[in-house]
Design brief:
By secondary structure, the protein is mainly beta. It is built from one helix and six strands, in the order ββββαββ. The radius of gyration is 19 Å and the shape is globular.
Length: 151
C-alpha cells in the first residue's frame, strides 16, 4: 500500500488566484507559509519558514478564493504532485504543489495575522447556547446543496 498525504497549517503569503479551465472547472492557487522552531548546535533558538504551493479545484476553489486573503490562516489536506514543463531556452522546469482535498479556514484575523479578541473560542455561551461575541459571524448567503457535500 502506498500513501501520498500532505497536511499543512499556516498563513497565506499572497491573495488566492482563481482561474477557470477550458472545461469550466474552477482552479484556485495560493501559497502557505509554515514556521519551524528549533535549537541549533549552540542551543540558540532558530526559526525557519517553509513555503508550500497549494492548488484547489471545483466548488472549494471558489470558496477559498472568496474567503481567504493574504495573511489568513488555513489548514490544507491533500496530496503532493510534481508537474514539469519545458521553460525558456528548453530548460525543464519543475513545480511541486499540494493538490488540496480539503481546505479549512482558520480564525478570522484583524489584518495582522493574529486572532482577534472576538474569536468564539474565547467567549462564553449565552442562555440560548450560542456564542456571545457581540456580533454575528459572516456566513455565506447561498443555500447548501446536499450534492456538494463530499460524504
Amino acid at each position: 500500500m502506498y500513501l501520498n498525504k500532505a497536511m499543512v497549517y499556516g498563513n497565506l503569503t499572497r491573495d488566492p488566484e482563481l482561474k477557470s479551465l477550458p472545461s469550466g472547472i474552477q482552479v484556485c492557487s495560493f501559497s502557505i507559509a509554515t514556521n519551524r522552531v528549533y535549537k541549533d548546535r549552540d542551543g540558540n533558538r532558530q526559526e525557519q519558514a517553509d513555503y508550500h504551493n497549494i492548488v484547489v479545484f471545483g466548488r472549494q476553489a471558489e470558496t477559498s478564493a472568496q474567503y481567504l486573503k493574504k495573511g489568513s490562516s488555513a489548514f490544507v489536506e491533500g496530496r503532493l504532485q510534481t508537474r514539469s514543463w519545458d521553460g525558456d531556452g528548453g530548460v525543464k522546469q519543475y513545480r511541486t504543489e499540494i493538490v488540496a482535498d480539503r481546505v479549512q479556514f482558520g480564525p478570522r484575523t484583524g489584518g495582522g495575522g493574529a486572532p482577534t479578541g472576538d474569536s468564539p473560542a474565547g467567549s462564553a455561551p449565552s442562555k440560548d447556547g450560542e456564542q456571545d461575541t457581540g456580533k454575528m459571524p459572516d456566513y455565506p448567503e447561498e443555500e447548501i446543496n446536499p450534492e456538494d457535500i463530499p460524504f
